[in-house]
């Protein structure tokens, strides 16, 4: 039944996609552009069809005060082939043999840092962009992306108070199940035609590869969005209140080392094997992690993000992405700042608590974990509807 419903919904989406796309292009363009094919050996992705006018691109108004990090790096995504061979050195070691399979897989490919792009949007930061919203998603979670586009991921031409635009992108790898790949890849290509908001890289979208997603995004940002003042990065199962985010940012300067979220201090690596975040002692020997912000949603300044990209490049990959980012911050000597409005571990740890359903709380927050698409749409409606709250919650 679910499959039937899904195929019907997708067929409809396809029809809409094709119609909208045909309207937005001259017939000539429509014929020229072929769908990205991702099976078989990855092809070099030229940013054709998304041609950036670099002259204007680099001369955005923000360039008046040049950023301290001069752009020395590539001006396009320069990884065009996947050259990732298993590290067979490890298999001879006895400690390696005794690890769980997913840790062995992680370590076997840990040295493979960058992969080619399958879907790119070099044009995303063209013009005056104030806030870039990026959302970690996986290929099968189309409904979450749809709900986010209709709620907090909505793009704005202006962030208000004379500020630039708010733009949204989703960050994806490839389908983790081989048999899903061809089918979902086609659908994703149509989805991207319709909305133009997908960045996709040619690596497997697994939990341990989220760190790859982190460094791929930072590298991408360095190339294609060098001047964006602020970035919000979050999960696809959170509630975000963009009005509050923008109010919070109103008196921040992009030059600050702003990195704010739900910060954990002295968190210990989890050593219980049945936990999702379990880390064997061979992978991390210190008793605690550097301070880090929960990956569910955090804000950072663009300049800091570019420096993070270079800092992360000096470290070996760590399987937990938000901890890894904390390690990169430590390299820079930057402390992440905790803020009450970021509840990436839920409002109340008690799942049954009524606070987790209370719209007045959501209205006063910046980010709350965790809401599924139907809950997100419903909560969004409540928060932006006729809501009377008995007392104003002062969080900002
Ligand atoms: C891939 O890597 C191997 C060893 O690291 C190297 O010998 C080979 O030339 C590389 N191939 C490409 C296409 O970069
Ligand atoms: C495997 O070991 C050799 C020799 O010690 C080393 O040169 C090579 O870089 C190692 N391979 C990887 C992927 O670390
Ligand atoms: C990460 O992605 C690469 C490339 O697709 C893959 O070879 C590797 O096994 C993945 N690692 C994990 C831990 O899933
Ligand atoms: C909003 O609240 C007012 C007063 O309580 C009510 O008259 C009105 O119908 C409500 N509007 C909506 C859209 O619910």
From TrEMBL:
Q: Which key words tag this protein in UniProt? A: Glycoprotein, Glycosyltransferase, Golgi apparatus, Membrane, Signal, Signal-anchor, Transferase, Transmembrane, Transmembrane helix
Any Pfam family hit: Galactosyl_T
- Any one Gene Ontology BP term: poly-N-acetyllactosamine biosynthetic process
Query: What pathway is this protein a component of?
Result: Protein modification; protein glycosylation
Where in the sequence is the signal peptide annotated?
Answer: 1-24
Question: What membrane topology was assigned to this protein in its record?
Answer: Single-pass type II membrane protein
Give GO MF terms, alphabetically. Answer: acetylglucosaminyltransferase activity
Q: Is this entry keyworded Transmembrane?
A: yes
From which domain of life does this come?
Answer: Eukaryota
Q: Give Gene Ontology CC terms.
A: Golgi membrane
- Cell location: Golgi apparatus membrane
Say yes or no: keyword Amino-acid biosynthesis present.
no
Where would you say this protein principally sits, based on its record?
A: Golgi
Q: What is its EC number?
A: 2.4.1.-
What family is this protein classified in?
Belongs to the glycosyltransferase 31 family.
Q: What does this protein do?
A: N-acetyl glucosamine (GlcNAc) transferase that catalyzes the transfer of GlcNAc via a beta1->3 linkage from UDP-GlcNAc to the non-reducing terminal galactose (Gal) in the linearly growing chain of N- and O-linked keratan sulfate proteoglycans. Cooperates with B4GALT4 galactosyltransferase and CHST6 and CHST1 sulfotransferases to construct and elongate mono- and disulfated disaccharide units [->3Galbeta1->4(6-sulfoGlcNAcbeta)1->] and [->3(6-sulfoGalbeta)1->4(6-sulfoGlcNAcbeta)1->] within keratan sulfate polymer.
Q: Which PANTHER family match?
A: BETA-1,3-N-ACETYLGLUCOSAMINYLTRANSFERASE, UDP-GLCNAC:BETAGAL BETA-1,3-N-ACETYLGLUCOSAMINYLTRANSFERASE 7
Q: Would you tell me the protein name for this molecule? A: Hexosyltransferase
Q: Which organism is it from?
A: Chinchilla lanigera
